[in-house]
Amino acid sequence: MAEYVTEQKKILKKLLEENCDSAYTIEELIDKMRINADGHVPGKSTVYRLMTKLVAEGTVKRFVRGNSRKFAYQIVMGEHCDCHLHLKCMGCGRLIHLDESVSDELLDKVKSISDFSINEEATVLFGSCADCKKDKAGK
Ligand SMILES: [Zn+2]
Ligand SMILES: [Zn+2]
User: Fold this and answer.
1) How many angstroms separate the alpha carbon of residue 29 from the centre of ligand 2?
2) How many CB atoms lie within 10 A of CB 85?
3) How far is CA 36 from CA 30, 41, 43, 78, 119, in A?
């Protein structure tokens, strides 16, 4: 049984890593697993338990999505995270990985103007994501 759970955890982690730009609710994660997995999809409570574990490990971040009061989960660090800047939404806490070429362009520009080298790993730009802007506008 333990082996089965470890396997599911691996699948979940991979799924989140491949979609490190997105955050998913438990239901969405299960839907995605259903598409990718060959038959064996764990129940909601299992996925919930696994995600709670991943959050506790610091691998995954949990936050409330927009005004929905639903929890969404997103992997904290995908691959190549030291090669681009990150945008953090102050509304929902979502972390957006900025495209590497856009990141480089921005850093080059800053460097050319002020000869200042920004540390990509340590820099996070704060603001509002598209969803949170929408929520605000809708009120
Ligand atoms: Zn990243
Ligand atoms: Zn947001």
Assistant:
1) 19
2) 21
3) 10, 9, 15, 19, 37
| Domain coordinates in residue numbering, the chain | 1-78, 80-139
The maximal CA–CA distance of the chain, rounded, in angstroms, is 58
Cα of 120 to ligand 2 centre, how many Å? Answer: 21
If you measure from the C-alpha of residue 7 to the centroid of ligand 2, how many angstroms do you get, rounded to a whole number?
Answer: 31
> At the topology level of CATH, where does 1-78 sit?
Arc Repressor Mutant, subunit A (1.10.10)
What is the per-residue pLDDT across 86-113, written as a single tens digit (0 to 9) for each? Answer: 998 888 888 888 888 999 999 999 999 9
Nearest-ligand number for the alpha carbon of 87: 1
